[in-house]
Amino acid sequence: LTGIAIERGELSGTDQLIAPLLRRSVPRRADPRVHNITVGHMLSMQSGLQEVSGAAYGNWVNTKHWIYEALSKPMIADPGSAMLYSTASYHVLGAVLSTVADKNLHQLAQSRLGDPLNIDIPPWNKDPQGRFVGGNDMHISPLAMLKIGETYRNGGRYKSQRILTKDWIDQSWDVYGNSRETNHGYGFGWFIWPTPNHDVFYARGYGGQMIYIVPDLALTVAITSNPAKPATLDGHLGALNTLLLDHIIPATPPTL
Question: φ, ψ for residue 194 (rounded to 5)?
Answer without folding.
Answer: -80, 95
